[in-house]
Specification:
Elements: H1 9-20, H2 24-31, H3 35-42, H4 50-63, E1 65-66, H5 69-74, E2 81-82, H6 88-96, H7 108-122, E3 126-131, E4 144-149, E5 160-165, E6 171-178, E7 185-188, E8 200-201, E9 206-217
Helix pairs in contact: 1-3, 2-3
């Protein structure tokens, strides 16, 4: 992950939060970190205490980004990276279904598929997809499973979505932006590597889209 111009603690906190697409309110609700405190930290008005930084490190790691205290506090040599933990949505599902011992399943793929099965049994609007390339790095790595829940297109703008185009039988995974002068949408990849079919589609004819809410990385 790039860390250009992250020369203050506040900028580094804001950077990780933007990568996770996590609100201050969410961090307050889930980790008891005051949203107003996060705001003044990000604006570099107050330097967080070491205890506060440790809580942020725990929260960020728990949400799927591996961050060290040294990097968050001093901009150390080890940059943040995606970690191998299940994200919070997945852990909640496992907790709700604790009668099944998932640790007995040896294959990461089988484990991921079982988690997917549990999620789609709870929500009728779930769509899932396997990522076979690196087109959405660094936020989503190759060989990951993702799940999204269908939303109206106006709620998908600026979000990473599993997309069904009207002229295709397959799903695609892209970020959606709204065109400036028309009620149309453009979809694009975050990492336009060679060999990706239609990395950017202007005026995409979208049948439906599902913003991603769950990621399971396999390493």
């Amino acid at each position: 992950m790039k860390d250009n111009n992250l020369d203050t603690i506040g900028k580094r906190i804001g950077f990780i939060r933007s990568i996770l697409r996590t609100t201050r309110g969410y961090l307050q609700k889930e980790y008891n970190i005051s949203s107003s405190s996060i705001k003044v930290w990000e604006y570099d008005k107050i330097v967080p205490t070491k205890q506060s930084l440790e809580t942020l490190v725990y929260a960020f790691n728990n949400e799927g980004i591996e961050v060290s205290l040294d990097w968050l506090e001093k901009g150390g040599d080890k940059p943040p990276s995606l970690n191998q933990k299940l994200n919070i949505t997945s852990r909640k599902i496992l907790k709700e279904n604790k009668n099944e011992n998932l640790s007995l399943i040896s294959s990461d793929d089988q484990r991921a598929l079982l988690e997917i099965k549990k999620l789609i049994s709870l929500y009728d609007d779930c769509i899932y997809m396997y990522l076979s390339d690196e087109s959405m790095n660094p936020r989503y790595v190759q060989n990951s499973w993702i799940i999204g829940r269908k939303k109206p297109l106006n709620e998908c703008v600026g979000r990473d979505c599993i997309i069904k185009l009207t002229d295709s039988q397959n799903f695609t995974f892209r970020r959606i932006i709204k065109n400036k002068y028309e009620n149309k949408y453009t979809i694009y990849v975050l990492n336009p590597i060679d060999g990706i079919y239609d990395p950017n589609i202007v005026n995409a004819d979208i049948e439906f889209a599902a913003p991603v809410t769950w990621v399971r990385s396999l390493f």
